Amino acid sequence: MRRNRLRRAVVLAAAALAVTTSVPLAAGAATDSRTPAYLNPRLPVAQRVSDLLSRMTLAEKIGQMTQAERGAIDADQSQITSLGLGSVLSGGGSTPAENVPEAWADMVDGYQKAALNTRLHIPILYGIDSVHGDGNMVGATIFPHNVALGATRDPQLVADVEHITATETRATGPQWVFAPCVCVTRDERWGRTYESFGEDPKLVQQMETALDGFQGNGSSDLAKPDHVLATAKHYAGDGDTTYGTSTSGTYTIDQGVTITDWQHFQQVDLAPYVTAVQKHDVGSIMPSFSSVQWTDRAGSTPVKMSANKELLTDVLKQKIGFDGFLISDWEAIHQLPGDYATQVRTAVNAGIDMFMEPNSAPQFEQALLAEVQAGRVSMARIDDAVSRILKSKFELGLFEHPYTDRTNIGTVGSAAHRSVARQAVAESQVLLKNSGNALPLKPSQKIYVAGVNANDIGNQAGGWTVSWQGQSGNVIPGTTILQGIQQVARNVTYSADASAPTKGSDVGVVVIGETPYAEGVGDVGNGHTLNISDADRANIDKVCGAIKTCVVLDVAGRTQIVTDELSKMDAFVMSWLPGSEGAGVADVLFGKKPFTGKLSVTWPRSESQEPINVGDPNYNPLFPYGYGLTTRR
Hints:
alpha/beta, 6-stranded mixed beta sheet, globular, 11% strand, 20 helices, 17 strands
């Protein structure tokens, strides 16, 4: 691959410079007045990286390996300059005071100006979690979460979704997204289930067209205003951790231990990263909070991925051939054994290149500097890390165009973008039951709609929407499922708690599901369950008991236990977390578009059946992986 050949060239050049880089050139020490090679866009990236690396002090190199959260530097942006930061990020809910596109672009450009005030004028990378659209920004197009996109079985649509996400993100400042999650979810009790495309690694690999949507066709597209650097996460095994092994606060499964043998790990957990690197040339990868413990190695104990040199360097970088850079997750190295200096040393030597230290960037830089000076971290390791980071900055065109190209800012949340999101919603709907041809509905029918999730756009968007955990209520512009139904049907009655009279209704539509959560906060056992709520059960009982034809929609990030309620329904649809375009649900309910979605995960009969996955012995789910009825237009 072109990037792999480039990577090897950079490493060789860096090695040749290793003797001299410890004695950096002083500012202005060039022998003539010509433009430095690293600022010459006509030169190969490998040559530019080598030239810049040769000019950098150790402190400047360590700065490039450091990422701070905007909240920690916003009040004093000179820290970007004084620390020589390589990157700044927005965590979930970390936004400018006015959360609109222009304010985002202005904010990022302000930080960039501070970065360009450094001696060598190295621009920053700005990173953000655009996991289902540019979710932090109000007004962005919010797409269905990945578990729904997996149900579409439509790789081209997934590429289109992420191309739009890239366009809206880059137009408003950030050039780098912490997406997509290429995890393979193996236990629906996991609070990040909805971030996975599904439980089958083959499906996840098919949907890695997401990487092409983000990055375009190779590194040559990265500098364009409609592309961003992507991040495959979380390497590796985060969806395959064992329930009850997490030691992070009250989490039960997220950030836990993947207890596995090498063959299973390779076939299930590692496979998507081979595809991401060798087929899609992903630019960055984020190691997981989780640990791995081997069942086929005597005496194996859990090792956090941030400390796992075998998997980060020996397997990912050397064997698989990853030539991008590794970015640690939020304060992930703080979970490693030992004092802070030991944590820093362990993670750098394991192979992590850039460190997400949101609130401790100065301490990180001081610690790493001391470790290098003491000889516990080699200059070769530092040069390798920095060369990987710089390569991405050159390929993104940031040295030529460091400030935001706002050409596409007017497309944020546009009708054209929302139309693609609406298509994604329609294609993701999975019809699980349809007795007596209850669906499609007819616009002429008198329709009774019940359930809070029918008319709550925050609930239907889920986590990672405006804030980290997401929130209920009118948090983003868009269309609720109820509004989508009302756009088609002439006679609609809505009652959130099914307290309004049902008499005279031809069909009842009960919308059940979850409220927003993200990460381990949403783990089952951490205040959550797969069982539907008492309120949802009461709505099903009342509406389905009173109206001849009853349709139930489940708006949730994972399967829920409906075994005892299923017989009361004429039709049952998994609507997932559709995002901002609830009208896409109405499109299939009324037959404007056919039901074509297929389950991306196995649907259990009870919570105690988890984990249950296709191919398991004694496989007896309520609905199998890949199940989904179809209808005609």
